[in-house]
Write a structure and sequence with these properties.
By secondary structure, this protein is mainly alpha-helical. It contains nine helices and two strands. The relative contact order is 0.12.
């Protein structure tokens, strides 16, 4: 059961309208790493969780909090659009220099949304469920969550630098702080699972069935050898099972691909010397 409280989790009130900035703010609402993505990602991971109850509870805690962040951003965007009729966007379009420099108001905010937020990114691309990850493997999912929070905080920080509106910055400062906490949360959860399961996902696959000759080899597949200076190229591996090997000049280990001709009913290119009989 979900229960809505009328008060926002934190203030979302700009000092002045700004339809151009409203368009930018759509990115952390409906973009690939926006609040809608993490909201759905965490909730589905929680609903599908077959692990310890504490993980399910934690996922539903944070997933539900992300609903509150979606609400905050939608509220902020709607207020940034106050007093921003279509005429303003049309006026900007008359000056190509202004339009090129500022990008203009998102016309869908007025035409489709009625001066309201939309479940889209900053370019108007609709939010897509394919952005979300819920694999059933908690370690794999938590690593994806850490990436999502890292990218989300990075974008929120960039948006903070793009405005001087105190109200907008105040809300973003809250979201940035929560992203800080959520990154630490996933780091802690990942470390806990790694301690129990090991580092490599999935931990349940018998390693004897993988080609272990290359399990710890870094292959230099581009010009230059600067990559040899990293910890991934020499020394003990993080799983404690081997030593990294640096292969400066990797050699092919497979065959030269040679595909059989397609059947005639596929009407592909005929092999040499076998033109169709009507030619």
């Amino acid at each position: 059961m979900f229960y809505h409280v009328k008060e926002l989790q934190y203030n979302a009130k700009p000092n002045r309208p700004d339809p151009v900035y409203a368009k930018k703010l759509q990115e952390i609402l409906g973009g690939q790493y926006g609040e809608m993505s993490v909201m759905i990602q965490y909730l589905f991971q929680g609903w599908n969780c077959r692990g310890e109850k504490k993980y399910r509870d934690m996922l539903l805690d944070i997933g539900t909090e992300e609903i509150a962040h979606v609400e905050m951003l939608a509220t902020m965007i709607a207020q940034l659009l106050d007093g921003a009729p279509v005429e303003e966007q049309e006026a900007a379009a008359k000056d190509p220099i202004i339009l090129a420099a500022m990008g203009g108001m998102n016309p869908q905010h007025a035409i489709v949304g009625g001066l309201g937020a939309k479940p889209d990114d900053s370019q108007g691309y609709p939010w897509n469920a394919r952005y979300t990850i819920a694999s059933g493997n908690l370690l794999a999912d938590f690593r994806a969550n850490l990436n999502a929070e890292s990218q989300g905080r990075l974008q929120a920080v960039r948006l903070y630098e793009m405005t001087d509106d105190p109200g907008v910055r105040d809300m973003l400062s809250f979201l940035i702080a929560r992203d800080h906490m959520h990154q630490l949360q996933w780091i802690a959860a990942i470390a806990e699972l790694e301690e129990k399961e090991g580092l490599v996902v999935p931990s349940t696959f018998n390693q004897q069935y993988e080609k272990q000759e290359v399990s710890y080899s870094f292959m230099n597949c581009s010009k230059g050898t600067e990559s040899a200076e990293g910890k991934w190229a020499s020394g003990a591996t993080p799983d404690g099972k081997a030593q990294f090997e640096y292969i400066e000049n990797p050699v092919p280990m497979g065959q030269i691909p040679e595909l059989a001709p397609a059947p005639t009913h596929m009407h592909g290119t005929p092999p040499p010397g076998k033109l169709p009989p009507n030619m």
